[in-house]
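Researcher: Quick test of sequence recovery. Tokens follow.
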């Protein structure tokens, strides 16, 4: 897939003292793998959780990619096992660190090959799939405000500014048996765009901004402009901001 995908990524500390977001990617001829994680917890705790999760996913990549490629109808189970293996690797990396108790992270994982697009997510980091005309879908947050959206008591636009925006119903932690949500979709098509991002990016983005990023002539300049716009709209809230942009050419 190396010659089929165009990929950009950005991360920013915002107004915070440290960046507890983490991102990673790998693109080969056969498959592509992208991860974004947003750490939660005390000083350094969230930073370690997000980094260790990304490391765990990629440490297991050579094994699970082969299993996933040949998994057929069992693709969901294989990706779920991959995420579980990553969490076990997190536990090894923490190596008894007392911070592990309070170290949580959200995550979004996107796996692409010529047969499928597979996603795993936990918390309120997101994956969007778009074409030039519309947002095809986004992952559904594991949060209180997502429940309110599903119930019809708030709108999509309300979510980023809602006082309960950071109240999650799921997150990754080595001491909790929290399952990521797994979904399998048709393979990426020419002209389609995937966006992986933390809440520091999506909470202030509007649909027209997303569609601009999916326009045929979009690229790194548009992504930089969007990131600057999100910081401006934050008006001092200044959360960490991380985004990965993937286009099938």
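Model:
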């Amino acid at each position: 897939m190396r010659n089929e995908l165009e990929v950009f990524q950005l991360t920013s500390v915002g107004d915070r003292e440290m960046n507890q977001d983490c991102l990673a990617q790998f693109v080969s001829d056969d498959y592509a793998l992208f991860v974004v994680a947003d750490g939660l917890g005390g000083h350094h705790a969230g930073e370690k959780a997000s980094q260790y999760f990304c490391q765990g996913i990629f440490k297991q990549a050579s094994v699970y990619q082969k299993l996933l490629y040949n998994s057929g109808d069992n693709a969901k189970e294989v990706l779920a096992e991959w995420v579980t293996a990553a969490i076990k690797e997190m536990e090894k990396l923490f190596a008894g660190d007392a911070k592990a108790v309070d170290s949580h992270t959200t995550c979004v994982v996107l796996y692409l090959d010529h047969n499928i697009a597979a996603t795993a997510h936990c918390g309120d980091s997101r994956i969007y799939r778009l074409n030039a005309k519309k947002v095809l879908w986004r992952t559904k947050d594991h949060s209180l405000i997502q429940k309110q959206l599903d119930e019809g008591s708030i709108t999509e636009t309300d979510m980023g500014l809602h006082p309960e925006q950071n109240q999650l119903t799921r997150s990754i932690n080595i001491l909790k048996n929290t399952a990521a949500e797994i979904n399998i979709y048709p393979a990426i098509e020419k002209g389609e765009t995937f966006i992986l991002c933390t809440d520091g990016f999506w909470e202030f983005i509007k649909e027209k901004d997303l569609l601009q990023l999916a326009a045929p002539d979009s690229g790194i300049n548009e992504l930089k402009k969007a990131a600057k716009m999100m910081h401006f709209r934050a008006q001092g809230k200044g959360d960490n901001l991380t985004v990965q942009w993937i286009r099938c050419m």
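The two ends are 10 Å apart (CA to CA).
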